[in-house]
Design brief:
The chain is an alpha+beta fold and 632 residues long. It is 38% helix and 20% strand. The longest helix has 22 residues.
Length: 632
């Protein structure tokens, strides 16, 4: 909790936090009731779970598309750990009508703290040692950060409105009052009322068809953190792709999505063979409108996915492998704070590539790994190799946790696990990870706890091995360590040879061996074109476009890479495609780098501002706020 929030309530909270930090070098707090259970101090929540903590949520809300609000009540079962006289929740722009305790309900006092731009407002509710349940009556703000309300024209079918949530990192508090920390887990049930011609689905046990009432009931029996709370409402349909897997999408997208994600069940089987049983019942996917800000979101039981991965050739389904892997790393064993984000994403990328190796072969997985390393190096170059944000263990206190959601957590984290594999062997690492996922299932993990566990269960006093792993350099130092694994992709080497043949005039573009290239080979090809282009050959952009039709490709991954060149080379023939892409696609991974390219020139700044003015209404808050920072 930062200084501002501490002062909002009682100075005792600050003193308590400071005392806890001083007593434990790993920033962990051991409760009196259970010495073996630990809850990390999280700077991004107002909750004090070591004093009073929510254990179960009963949500009863109505989704009002006219008012663009979620209205209702959140009833919590709570555990008063120390017999305190209050419990703290997180809110962001929520209107709190009243709070009651007990059943039958009795109104109790509550107060909202001053607003912090990152954290929102603390909700302090008066309780006593006998209170086991409380109910918060509330409504969300029409501009709630987690919610995107889309009118019919912004959907695929263009017939009915759509709503989806994005709770990660700390946006759940903008649509449900909650203890919004990855270190606090709770089970939940929900009753959600929506317009009768729409279907509601959540990160829970879901219906597969609309009913006549528009009222849907949900249950999530496994305890999850608030960032995995998820809701989508729209004119969606369902089709199965396996015994435990299926797809939700709008009618016009459903068959395309079913084809694209038809290997989902095979991936799930492969994942279980690697790291143990899938513990969440079903694994379904919902394809959202293109404004969804991420490639995917690992909401348990129901992955939220962008339609930009539907390329028609299953070439971008590594996204499914990634979100599925989160069912173990992230959803099952969760980073305790956002400073430990790499424990979610680094492990997941490693796991993802192991799944891809089983399904598509080693050469495919190595191609993905090589591209991932490129992403990490590019991000480090952009941030600066000495930047604190290139460390695995972050310090995001006083900042928004989204600042730490870069390729570093994903790719540097994965490379660290790959280094461990290279030094101990795959068999030993797999046994270690199986034990890790099983021992810490439905628990949270800090970086320090993981390092201790790694030393105890895998290194086991082997000083030579520990020296080879250089753990502190990887985790606590900036940049890329000198012992970073070397990744060789034979498929990408062939792409490099093709580029060389063209640049040196050995072969024209039309004679390059591109027929069997996947999306990933095309991405590598575009990334490694020579820059600046040969000034003696001013029509190289046109030649590339005429040969490979990049400007008009329907593959978003390829198009996003190509549009960088459109901007950098002022290729005016691609400007129409650039504007169309930026005004229809809201995936931050694609959108943000293009705006960053545009603002490098005065002409580009004007173009960026004009495009953003048109596009902002199609962006989720996550993307819009990131772009606004670039345009300042």
């Amino acid at each position: 909790m930062n200084r501002l929030f501490a002062l909002l309530f009682i100075s005792l909270l600050t003193a308590s936090c400071n005392q806890q930090n001083n007593q434990n070098p790993n920033n962990m707090v051991v409760t009196e009731e259970k010495k073996q259970s630990t809850i990390a101090i999280d700077a991004h929540t107002c909750a004090m779970p070591n004093e009073a903590v929510a254990t179960h949520l009963d949500l009863d809300v109505e989704v009002d598309f006219t008012k663009k609000q979620i209205i209702g009540k959140a009833s919590y079962q709570i555990k008063n750990v120390i017999g305190t006289d209050h419990i703290l929740f997180d809110t962001y722009d929520l209107t709190i009508q009243k709070v009651t305790v007990g059943n039958p309900e009795k109104e109790t006092k509550f107060e909202l703290g001053a607003k912090d731009k990152n954290l929102g407002q603390a909700l302090k509710v008066t309780i006593d040692s006998t209170v086991k349940m409380l109910t918060i009556y509330y409504s969300s703000n029409p501009a709630a950060q987690a919610l995107q309300w889309l009118d019919a024209q912004q959907t695929a079918d263009k017939k009915k409105p759509f709503l989806f949530t994005q709770s990660e990192s700390i946006f759940a508090r903008s649509w449900v009052p909650c203890q919004d920390s990855p270190g606090i887990r709770f089970t939940y049930s929900a009753k959600v009322k929506v317009p009768k011609d729409l279907l509601a689905v959540m990160s829970a046990e879901n219906p597969i068809a609309k009913n006549d009432s528009g009222i849907y009931h949900f249950n999530m029996p496994q305890a999850i953190p608030a960032y995995l709370l998820a809701l989508a409402v729209g004119d969606i349909e369902f089709k199965s792709v396996g015994p435990r897997t299926g797809i939700y999408a709008e009618h016009s997208m459903l068959d395309k999505a079913v084809y694209e994600f038809s290997e989902t069940e095979d991936m799930l089987v492969a994942a279980e063979k690697l790291y143990g049983a899938y513990r969440w019942g079903r694994y379904d996917i919902i394809v959202l409108p293109p404004s969804f800000p991420f490639g995917g979101m690992e909401n348990p039981r129901l992955t939220f996915a962008t339609p930009t991965v539907i390329a028609g050739d299953r070439s971008l389904t590594s996204l499914v492998a990634h979100e599925m892997a989160h069912s173990w790393s992230g959803n099952l064993v969760t980073n305790a704070t956002w400073n430990d984000f790499w424990l979610n994403e680094g492990f997941t990328v490693y796991f993802e590539r192991r799944i891809l190796e089983v399904i598509y072969g080693l050469d495919y997985a190595e191609m993905q790994a090589a591209l991932g390393k490129q992403d990490a190096i590019n991000t480090m170059n952009e941030l600066g190799m000495t930047s604190e944000d290139t460390k695995l263990k972050l310090n995001l206190n006083g900042r928004h946790p989204d600042d730490g959601m870069t390729d570093i957590a994903y790719e540097k984290g994965c490379l660290f696990l790959r280094l461990i594999e290279e030094n101990v062997g795959r068999e030993k690492l797999d046994a270690f990870l199986n034990k890790y996922f099983n021992e810490f299932a439905f628990k949270t993990m800090t970086t320090e706890m993981f390092i201790d566990y790694l030393k105890k269960e895998l290194i086991k006093g082997d000083t030579i091995l520990e020296e080879k792993l250089t753990i502190d350099q990887w985790v606590y130092n900036a940049g890329m360590p000198a012992n970073c694994p070397n990744i060789i992709s034979t498929r990408l080497q062939k792409v490099d040879k093709a580029i060389e043949d063209w640049v040196q005039g050995v072969k024209p573009l039309s004679h390059l061996p591109t027929r069997e290239w996947s999306t990933h080979e095309w991405v590598h090809f575009i990334r490694h074109l020579p820059y600046p282009f040969n000034p003696q050959l001013p029509d190289q952009m046109k030649e590339l476009d005429n040969t490979f039709h990049f400007t008009n490709t329907g593959n978003c991954e390829i198009l996003a890479e190509w549009l960088h060149w459109v901007i950098l080379n002022k290729y005016s023939s691609g400007y129409g495609s650039l504007e169309k892409f930026l005004t229809t696609v809201g995936r931050r991974k694609y959108v943000l780098p293009l705006y960053k390219d545009l603002v490098k020139t005065e002409e580009g700044k004007k173009m960026a501002a004009a495009i953003f003015a048109k596009a902002k209404g199609n962006y989720h808050f996550v993307t819009a706020s990131s772009v606004e920072e670039v345009l300042k």
